Amino acid sequence: MNVTRFHLVLIFVWMLLVPPTCEASEGKCLNIVRYIYHSLGIRIRVSDIPNIVGEWTSSSCEVRPGPQFVTRYIKILRNATWEGYLHRYNDSQCSEPKLSLHMKGFYKISDEELESIKGSNKAFFNFTSIELYPHNDYEQETAVNVSTRHCPNTLRVVRSSRSADVFEVNIRAFRKRACRKAFGFSESEFSALKLESLRKKGSRYNKLYFGEIPTTRMTRKHKPKSYQLPLQRYNANNCTVCMKIRSGTGPRPPKLPQKPPRVVLLNGEWASTTCEVNPGGGFLTRHFQFTKTTNESKWECHYYFYLDAECKKLDFELNGKGIFIGSNPSKVVAGAYEYVFNMLTAAITPFDPVTTRLLNMATENTCGGSGSWKTRHRKDITVTGGCKLFGISLPHTEYDLLKMDTNPQGHRLLYVGQRASDGSDPSSPSRRPTSFQIPLIECSSFKFKFVPPTTRPTTRPTTRFPNQGIVIPIGTIPTSRRKDMTTRRRTDRETLGKTTHKKNDDNTSGITGNVKFAYANTAASWLSCKLLMILSIFIVIPW
Predict the structure, then answer these.
(1) Digit-coded pLDDT (tens) for 72-92
(2) What's the CA gap between 529 and 526, in Å, rounded?
(3) What angle do CA 72, 76, 79 make, to 5 degrees?
(4) Which stretches of 331-390 are DSSP H helices?
(5) Looking at residue 385, what DSSP letter applies?
(6) What letter would DSSP give residue 227?
(7) What residues form DSSP beta bridges with 162?
(8) Mean pLDDT, residues 424-441
C-alpha cells in the first residue's frame, strides 16, 4: 500500500511540474515566411488612400541599377505639396557625395491601384522646381555637357560658389523624356506607392515603398512592376542614419560613416520580412538555407507564390536544391561578392485548385507529368527537366551578387541581386545584377513563437443592438433611439471580441478570438487543475 501511495505522489508531482502545451508550433522560420503578414503583424490599406504625410528617409546607402549609390529624403505636407532631396555618391557607403537634387512640387494619391502592381496606390507627383548641386568641378562639367547635348537651355546658374555652381532646371524643357533620361532621372518611381504599418504599433514603424527603378533604359514609358527599398520615418527607432539623412541639404549633403566591409559567409537560414513583388508582377516570400561541408556548399530555397498583395492566398510553392560556389569580391559594387548558384532538383506544391488544373492540363513530360497533380501534394519536376508552364528549367545556373549588412536593431541582413525588369534570368556573368532586392533577415532574429492563423473568421458579438431579453409590450416606450442601445467604446468592443465562443460544425464549442487570450484561458484552467491536484495529494497521503 505504501508503494502504491508513493507512486501516486510521484505521478501528481510530475503532472504539476510539466508545463501546459499549446497547439501552436514553435517559431519555425519556414512557417513565419509562409504566413508573413500574420506572423509579423503587417498591414496595408489597398482600398483607402494612405496617410503618408510626414518626413521619410532612406535607412541605409541604397544601390540602384548601374550601379548608382543614393540616399533619399522626402517631406510630404497636408496641403498636397512635397519637397525632397536625392543625393548621389561615388562610393557604395555614401560617404563621398557628387551631386544633389532638390525637388519641389504637388502630389495626388488615388485609391485606385496601378495596373502593373496589385495592392499599390496610383500616385502622381508633379515638379514645380528642381535645383542641381554639383559637389565638384567634374560633376558640374558633366551636367553642363549633358544639358548642351540632349536638352539645351535647361540649366540656369542661380548662384556660384568656390566648389561649384548651383543650377536651376527649366521645368518645361525637363519634361522631355530624352532630357530626363540623360540626367538619369526616372519619374516612374513616383507613379506607384505602398504604405505598410505594423499592427498595434505607432507610425514610427511605417514603411513607404515607391516604384522600382528599371534595370535597363526603356524606349517607352516604364510602368513599375515592383518596389524599391522602403523609406522609413526620420524618427524611426534606433535609426541614426535616418536622422543624418534628414539633416542634409543641397549645399551640405549627408555623409554616412564608413564601415569595414563585411565578408559574405553563407550559412544558416534567411527569410523575407515582407510580401515581395517580382518583376513579373507576382507576390512571393523567400526562404534560403545554406550549409557548408568539407567537399561542397549546398543551398535550399523555398519560394511561396501568392494570389493577393497581402500574401494570404497561397498559389503554389517552389522548393529547389543545389550547390553554390563563389565568394569573390565584386569589381563593380564595392563591398559585394559574386556567387554562382546551381539548382539541380526542384519540386512544386500547388495550393490553389485552379493552379492544379493548369498543371494537369500542361503538355505531357513538360512539368512533372500531366494528369497526376493534386492540391497540397508535392511533386518532383526534376525528371521532366523543370516546368515550362512556370518557366523553370533544370539544371539551372544563375550568376548573382550578394551583400551583407546589419539593420538598426543589430540583426544581420542578406541582400540578393535584383532581377531584371524584363524578367530575364542572370544566366551569364554579363547579366549579373548591379543592384539589390529587399533584404532577407537571419531567422535567428525571430524571437517569438509562431501561432498559425485561424481557419474560421473571427466573430464578435454585436454591441450596437444588444439582446433585449424579454420585452413587456405595456412597458415599452416608443422612442427613436434608446440610451442602452448606444455603441460601446472601442476598448469595450475589443474586450468582448477577445473571448468570443462559437459553435463549430461538429456542435462543439471553441474559442474563435485572439489565440493569445485563448492561451491565457488555458493557463487559467491549468492553474485550477493544479489546485485540484494539490488537494488530491493531501487526500492520498493520509490514505
Answers:
(1) 999 999 999 999 999 999 999
(2) 5
(3) 160
(4) 353-360
(5) T
(6) B
(7) none
(8) 92
Q: Measure the CA–CA gap between 274 and 475, rounded to whole angstroms.
A: 58
Question: Which DSSP state fits 331?
Answer: S
Measured CA to CA in angstroms, residue 378 lies from 92, 214, 342, 350, 356 at distances of: 42, 35, 21, 7, 11
What is the distance between the alpha carbons of residues 54 and 74, in angstroms, rounded to a whole number?
8
| Alpha carbon 93 to its chain's center | 23
Q: How many helices (H) and strands (E) does the chain have?
A: 10, 27
Neighbours of 362 (CB within 10 A): 19
Total Cβ atoms within 10 A of residue 504: 10
Whether 399 contacts 338, CB under 8 Å: yes
**Residue that the C-alpha cell 485550477 belongs to:** 528
369-393 pLDDT tens trace: 777 899 999 999 999 999 999 999 9
Report long-range pairs for 84-87 (Cβ below 8 Å, ≥24 apart).
85/248, 85/249, 85/250, 85/253, 87/245, 87/248, 87/253, 87/254
Residue 48 to residue 219: CA distance in whole angstroms: 33
Residue 418 DSSP SS3: coil
In which element (H, E) is residue 511 found?
A: strand 509-511
- Tens-place pLDDT, residues 452-504: 787 655 455 444 444 444 333 333 334 344 444 444 444 444 444 444 444 44
Beta bridge partners of 57: 73, 232
For the beta carbon of residue 355, count every other beta carbon within 10 angstroms. 21
**In a 3-state reduction of DSSP, which class is residue 159?**
strand
Cell numbers at 352, concatenated? 490553389
CA torsion through residues 401, 405, 408, 411, sign: positive
Lowest average pLDDT, out of 291-295, 404-408, 518-522, 525-529, goes to 518-522
**Cα distances (Å, whole numbers) of residue 29 to 405, 437, 489:** 20, 20, 38
